[in-house]
Amino acid sequence: MSKLVIIDDDPIHHKIVQFMLTKNELAKETTYTFDGKLVLDYLEENRTKISALPDFIFLDLYMPGNSGWDFLNGFQKIYKTLKKEIQVYVVSSSIFQMDINRSKGYPFVTNYITKPMMKNVFDGIRGRNLRITGPQLN
After folding, report:
1. Cα separation, 57 vs 20, whole angstroms
2. At the topology level of CATH, where does 2-128 sit?
3. pLDDT per position as a tens digit, 46-56
4. Domain coordinates of the chain in residue numbers?
């Protein structure tokens, strides 16, 4: 089982993911937050502690304050120093190709998933624990 961090400003999305995780057993430990800056600070402080680092991050792009783009830019600066590879999944309601292409420009972004997240997304991540290719436009 894995560790998952959800960065999203929508509490309803948090509840949906919580429900789907109970059905799909993707993560044994899940952290929910509205603030990506807190996650960046935590990752930087724990960069050498493999057991403290998450396996997956689900990131919303459009949030007030620090956006998902701000998080991606900050993560770009530190991801090579982390002692564990973290799979970052952009999870957004945006279906604009411009957003999909821009997010795929970050080498650590595993996939772009459109909301609402469907069961097959969790099955793909859990079943193979591999990177999913192509945007999930469900």
Report:
1. 16
2. Rossmann fold (3.40.50)
3. 999 999 999 99
4. 2-128
